[in-house]
Design a protein that fits this description.
- By secondary structure, the chain is mainly α.
- The protein has 6 helices and 2 strands; from the N terminus they run αααββααα.
- It is elongated, with a radius of gyration of 21 Å.
- About 20% of the residues are buried.
Length: about 190
C-alpha cells in the first residue's frame, strides 16, 4: 500500500468521524438556541428568569465549538494570513506551511495536557444550576459535574491533533512529489449524497 493510499484511507476515516461530530454540533447549537429562547421568553414575557438556561447555553456552546473546530482546521477555516506564504512561491510557501502545521501540532499537544488537567479539576465542582432531575422518577436529583462541560476541550484538541497529522503528512508528501494532489475527502461524501 502506497503512502497516498494510506493517507487517503486515514482521511476517509477522519471524514466519517468529523461528520458525526458536526451532526452532534448541530444538535448542540440547536439546543443552545432553544435554551436562549426559553430564557428570553421567561425573562421578558413572564418576568421570571430561570436559573439554568444561561449555563446550559454555555454548555452547548462549548460542545459545539469542540465538535466543529477540527473540521474548521481541516478546511482552513481559521483566520490565516497568506501574504507571506504566497510571496515565497510554491516550494518555500509549502515549507512555511509545513512549519506552521508542526508548530500547531506542538501547541495542540500542550493545550491537550492543560485541557485534561482542567477536566480533572472539573470533577471536584458541581454546576451551579444544571441538574439531572431524577426526582421525576422518584430518585435523588444529581447536580451536573463541570467536568462534563470541560470534556469538549480535550475532544476538540485531540481531533484537531489527528487532523494536523493528516495535513502534515499530505504537506510532506506533496513537497517530496509535487505531482501528488490530495483531494478533500469531504467532496466524495457530498458527491455520493447527490
Amino acid at each position: 500500500m502506497e503512502l497516498y493510499e494510506i493517507v487517503n484511507l486515514y482521511g476517509r476515516v477522519l471524514t466519517r468521524i468529523l461528520a458525526i461530530c458536526r451532526f452532534f454540533a448541530i444538535i448542540a447549537i440547536s439546543a443552545m438556541v432553544v435554551c436562549i429562547l426559553i430564557q428570553v421568553f421567561c425573562r421578558y414575557v413572564l418576568n421570571n428568569a430561570l436559573p439554568w438556561p444561561e449555563e446550559a447555553a454555555r454548555f452547548f456552546m462549548l460542545w459545539m465549538t469542540g465538535l466543529v473546530a477540527p473540521s474548521a482546521f481541516r478546511w482552513g477555516g481559521f483566520v490565516s494570513i497568506d501574504l507571506i506564504k504566497d510571496a515565497l512561491g510554491n516550494f518555500l510557501g509549502s515549507v512555511l506551511n509545513l512549519l506552521i502545521l508542526i508548530l500547531s501540532l506542538a501547541i495542540l499537544i500542550v493545550t491537550l495536557s492543560f485541557a485534561i488537567r482542567h477536566i480533572n479539576s472539573g470533577w471536584l465542582f458541581d454546576s451551579s444550576s444544571l441538574r439531572i432531575p431524577l426526582s421525576l422518577i422518584g430518585l435523588e436529583t444529581i447536580k451536573l459535574k463541570l467536568a462534563w462541560v470541560y470534556m469538549s476541550l480535550p475532544l476538540g484538541f485531540l481531533l484537531m491533533f489527528f487532523v494536523g497529522i493528516e495535513l502534515i503528512i499530505q504537506q510532506v508528501h506533496t513537497l517530496i512529489n509535487p505531482r501528488v494532489v490530495y483531494h478533500d475527502p469531504e467532496d466524495k461524501i457530498e458527491s455520493a449524497a447527490e
